[in-house]
Automatic annotation (TrEMBL):
Signal sequence annotation: 1-19
UniProt-listed PROSITE patterns: PROKAR_LIPOPROTEIN (PS51257)
Residue ranges of coiled coil: 35-83
The name this protein goes by in its record: SlyB protein
Keywords: Coiled coil, Signal
Length: 88
C-alpha cells in the first residue's frame, strides 16, 4: 500500500509531466533543429521511464503474489507436520 506522501508525489509528478508534454510536443516541431532534436530526446527518455515504471509495477505485483504463495506453502507445511505428529 502506498503512503499518502507517495501518492501526493506521484500526483504532483503526473500533473507536471502532463503540463510539460504539450511544451515538449511543440518543441519537437520547432524550426530550430537543436531544440527539435533535444525535445525528441526528452520524449524518448520519458517514454522509456514510463515503460520502466510499468515493468516495475508488474514485477511488484509478481513479487506480492509469490510472497502470498510462499506464506501459504509455509502454513501448509506446518499443518502437515502437525498432522504427521498426530499420527494421521
Amino acid at each position: 500500500m502506498r503512503r499518502p506522501s507517495q501518492v501526493l508525489a506521484f500526483a504532483l509528478a503526473a500533473s507536471l509531466s502532463l503540463g510539460s508534454c504539450s511544451l515538449i510536443r511543440s518543441d519537437a516541431n520547432s524550426r530550430n533543429p537543436l531544440i527539435a532534436e533535444q525535445a525528441q530526446r526528452v520524449n524518448d527518455l520519458q517514454r522509456q521511464v514510463d515503460d520502466q515504471n510499468r515493468l516495475v509495477d508488474t514485477e511488484k505485483a509478481k513479487e506480492k503474489a509469490l510472497k502470498y504463495q510462499l506464506k501459504s506453502a509455509k502454513q501448509e507445511l506446518k499443518a502437515r507436520k502437525q498432522q504427521a505428529k498426530s499420527g494421521y
